[in-house]
Amino acid sequence: MDESPIFGSLPAAEPPTFPSRYIAGFWRRLFAFLIDAFLVSIPCLLLGYSFHGFFSGSSRWAAAMGLVITLPYFAILGSSIGRGQTVGQRLTGIEVVDAQGNHLPLGKSLLRYSILLVSLAFANAFLPAYMAWPLGMALVATIYLYLFNTRTRQSLHDLAAGSFVVETLGTGGLEGRRLWLGHWAILGALGIVGIVSMALIMHTAPMTEETAVERALLDSGEFQEVVVMVRTHYPGHETDLQLTVKCKSKPMDYGKAAKEIVTIAEGADPEASQQGLISVNFKEGFNVGFVSYSLTKRLSHTPQQWREMARTD
Description:
- The chain is of the alpha+beta class.
- The protein has two domains: 26-203, no CATH class; 208-312, 2-Layer Sandwich (GMP Synthetase, Chain A, domain 3).
- It is built from eleven helices and six strands.
- It has helices at residues 26-50, 52-57, 59-77, 87-92, 106-126, 132-148, 156-161, 182-204, 208-219, 254-268, 303-312, and strands at 94-98, 163-167, 223-233, 238-247, 277-288, 291-301.
- Strands 3-4-5-6 form a four-stranded mixed beta sheet.
- α1 (26-50) packs across α3 (59-77).
- The chain starts with 25 loop residues before the first helix and ends with a helix.
């Protein structure tokens, strides 16, 4: 008589299976990004303070170093090399996949995070001023889709790379998920509003006098950034001239440097001497990645006081 084990007829236990992919929610993605931003900010902060003088004098080098630190972190970990998870995404239980449910190759991950990071933090440092509007619209589209595209939660960088952010518990692809086309109509309307707004701003400001002063200061070759503003005080309608500059090299004597700036401004615009006050703001600081540090030294006098100070030299 043959004897068999008591449990010999029971089927072998199978590993648990999970349903198809679930799109990651708003808060999970936000928390994951905040965690990652904090982690990459640590080396950016240390680098920025260690070379404060150099980065303060060169915004492009500061931004370049920030991108060198930030982009590889996101692109490598968010690709198949890191199994589609940055540290923040791993802690919050989400990952980046394509429509078939596979992790992105490095090239697509690099494209995805380049679009995201450039629109968020690096556009102003690398690209000319005339690109401000399209890049501004790219940022608006990224934020809008992140908030309101509840069907697929794909933002602009996801659409470009064909990626989805999903919960890690799940299998299969997401081929059937499509963006609601009405979102493009809304973004198109926002773009038209942006064009009209920019046209109105460019038509009314800056004033010719402000442009002349700004051009004269930039032509001196001493400054990497110049902002000229005329501020009006009501009800007396008295006006002040605000000259904000970021020097290429730190001035040895801020008072002397300010007097030279005021002299250039008055030479470019005779109306500058008619202002109630002329303020010179020396802006110092750096932006490395998501880390920003800024310090402003301000010297403010009436035009007559500036001229008297210049005569005493």
